What we know:
The chain is built from 15 helices and 16 strands. The chain is of the alpha/beta class. Helix 8 links the parallel strand 11 (187-192) and strand 12. It is globular and about 60 Å long. The mean pLDDT is 95.
Amino acid sequence: MAIKCETFSFEVQARDGKARAGRIETAHGSIETPIFMPVGTQGSVKSLTPEDLTEEIGAQIILGNTYHLYLRPGLEVIKKHGGLHQFMNWKRPILTDSGGYQVFSLKDLRTIKEEGVLFHDHIGGAKHLFTPEKVIEIQETLGSDIMMAFDECPELPSTDEYMQKSMARTTRWAQRCLDARTRTDCALFGIIQGGTSEKLRQQHAEELCKLPFDGFAIGGLSVGEAKEKMYETVEFTTPLMPEDKPKYLMGVGKPDDLIECIARGIDMFDCVIPTRNARNGQCFSSRGVVNIRNAVYAEDMAPIDPDCGCYTCKNYTRSYLRHLYKAQEILSSRLCTLHNLHYFLSLVGQARAAILEGRFEQFRRDYYAAQQASVAAGV
């Protein structure tokens, strides 16, 4: 008999068009959706502490990476701490991806077999075999509140013939992941593939959604396809996913993408963009993107975003932030990351409030109007 997660549940609290507001319950607390998950690949959201994430930003859940944590520091170290939560002193939920994307990105260093994927790691070149069973074992050792099934993430474009074979293998691996579960406090999500083909997405959704996963994700997007094609694929795929389970769009996350995909029924997002771009001096705001490295901000006494209440905007000017960036001070990354993640979490929080109040479409229009007004004003 398949193991069932006893600590996980999901409730849709309100709908406004296709947009949904809900609540996920996990072993480490609740998550109000729609939600954006900061990426903590190696047990750390770069430059921030857990207290920053909870007290300053309001992060309800973060994402860790199976592949990277398996390689470094390794499972034995994390096991000695009692799991990833204790290792990184994080008391709220953690989702871990399966490492599939990282393994498949090592195109010249891996071989795909029915058993799993044989690969040489990017650190020392050692040989490893990731199977569905191994990936579940790793994630259960980490103590993930939400585990992701091991899937193949095909390159785009791919032929329909290869995509069919890949999808079939992902479905077989998905069943093996379900069979490998031993813990009743770790939820498990399946991942729907199929590229940008409506026919293939429908086929794979129909196959995968028959399996008893706790939630489902759309994988294989934001890998180079046109943005409109991505939106079309999300719009087509979300109605094929069970309405009583969370719908997660993997690796997608510019502000416009969050708004558009919430409108299409997505509940959960993750992306490295707010943290990675912060380290490169790019800050997101209600008035558009601020590239803090630009000379125009050298004597600008305004905060990044006058409408933002984050620690950075309450205490520092664009001028100072530009100075930090140009001087290559570590504080630049920290302050810009604090701002960007605060902005992303605030954005999905505002979207949730609008859904609960039945005014999501007005919120969506107001968001774009503010962005366009800022562009017109040269802000």
